[in-house]
Structure formats: structure tokens, C-alpha cells
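Sharing a chain and its predicted structure for anyone who wants a worked example. Both blocks are below, sequence first, C-alpha cells second.
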Amino acid sequence: MLGQEKFWLGGNNLADLSTWNWLGPGMPFGYRKWAKDEPKSALTGQPGCLVMGEDDDWYSEDCNNEYFFVCETKCNSGATVEPIFI
């Protein structure tokens, strides 16, 4: 399946077109892997949601499009490590 579909990654710029945040924690992106000429929502002035493409790069898409999604969960390994948000 991976490599043949796009996936929602849980980021968007719905609150502020100039800032991309992760949906769950609401934190701004600390890492970016935008494809060339992305995010397109910056050019169109329309809000967008973050999608990982077949090439593993990031794209801004209309939030009403339907794709598979990737979820975030806490690891219960017992290790005392601070969470890392990318």
C-alpha cells in the first residue's frame, strides 16, 4: 500500500495560512519535507492539509480529499525519554 497512495499526516494551516501545525499537539512543524513548489496553499491563499505523496515528499491538499491516514501514539516502552515532535 505504501508507495501507491497518498497519506494524511495530520498537519494543516487551517488556523493561520502562514503557519503549519500538527493537528494533535497543535505544535508548529519542526521538520519539513515539502515537495518542489509546495505548499501550494501559500500560493492559492486557501487553507490546506498535509499529505505525504508516493515519493515521500509533502504536499498541501484540499482537506476534503479522502486518503488513508497515519496516526500518532505514545510508546509505552517504559523508557524515560522526552517526546520528539517532527
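Comments welcome. The longest strand covers residues 7-12.
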